[in-house]
Amino acid sequence: VQLQASGGGLVQAGGSVRLSCTASGNFFKIVTMAWYRQAPGAQRELAASINTGGSTNYADSVKGRFTVSRDNAQNTMYLEMNNLKPQDTAVYYCSMLITTTTETTHYWGQGTLVTVSS
After folding, report:
1. Integer angstrom CA distances of residue 14 from 21, 69, 82, 117
2. pLDDT tens-digit profile of 34-45?
3. Which residues of 11-26 are buried (b: 16+ CB within 10 A; e: fewer)?
């Protein structure tokens, strides 16, 4: 199982970026999907998550600005980030809890950098 994230880049404060993450390989089910982020010198933190039923959860710092969604048919998760602030600058990692023939475990994407300039 592999996760491929894309969509990062440089954006001005107040701008928008859309990230995507697609799972590929042999598996039965994607249980939950989540976006984490790690700012320079900081610990990795949960930004947003979405479960099988579509219920979402957001960090307080991104509520009202970020929207997480999923396309189950395409095994893909998105993160729409609006009204970006310099403090949103971080490497964004996607993570999925996936069930295969032998286990249910978390998989991680390679990370995509989002830089917000002031």
Report:
1. 23, 21, 7, 9
2. 999 999 999 999
3. beeeeebebbbbbeee
